[in-house]
Amino acid sequence: MDLVLSVADYYFFTPYIYPATWPEDDIFRQTISLLIVTNIGAYILYFVCATLSYYFVYDHSLMKHPQFLKNQVSREIKYTIQALPWMSIPTVALFLLELRGYSKLYDDVGEFPSGWFQLVVSVVSFLFFTDMLIYWIHRGLHHRLVYKRIHKPHHIWKIPTPFASHAFHPVDGFMQGLPYHIYPFIFPLHKVVYLALYVLVNIWTISIHDGDFRVPQILMPFINGSAHHTDHHIFFDCNYGQYFTLWDRIGGSFKTPSSFEGKGPLSYVKKVMEEKGNSHADKDCKNEKLLNGEFMKTE
Prior knowledge:
299 residues; mainly alpha; 2 domains; two-stranded parallel ribbon; 10 helices; 1% strand; transmembrane; Sterol_Desaturase_Related; membrane
């Protein structure tokens, strides 16, 4: 995060916001700056990616599902807008620790003998490490002692849209994002890679709420996509994973997505629409016969 903050200081905060006498490395100034940068970045990422996904990926016929709520999209957006600033407070505390040098983030690939190999391995380990922790945190949030108070608000959206991706209770949102911040305090990670992964995992969070249930055949057994996560919203006690199906399989909570079996919400909507279409067709046919009959009698 120091890379982002240094750019923000150079182009914005130092020349236009803070007095010249306030040092850039002052902890209070860094805290305020991080709060501003984190919130602005989160809103931009959320609105840009969720909006693009909603208009170009999301299948709007899902909105005809009986479990899709009235004014749901506006409610998802409103909930997110209210929650993000509160999520940012503990997040900024962790960013501040990174900024003050307590993490294992580095900015020179040459710092390690196997530099580029180390970098590639760190990306893979980051994904598997965070997926494991998110699985157990997410499953823990479904425990009856905490579910109603913390995680239930996210399950209001049975048929989610991309805008539901960040519509969490603040504690819930922070807890599920915590593994991303824990990793660089335990394992070495390049600063640019960390920033890129942080952006990508937020985009992934949007993608598993986008209603696009297609997955390449070869990846179906491994990837936890939108089809899996939509079933999690509907059935509650399955598919807790973030990227992969691994921990759901280990933990016994894996469920083959109903969409893969032709029984998902989109299939249900299509079936209902076809039945309505057939019903209207039958009604029109009967009306036509009646009119023809009346015409014959009149003749």
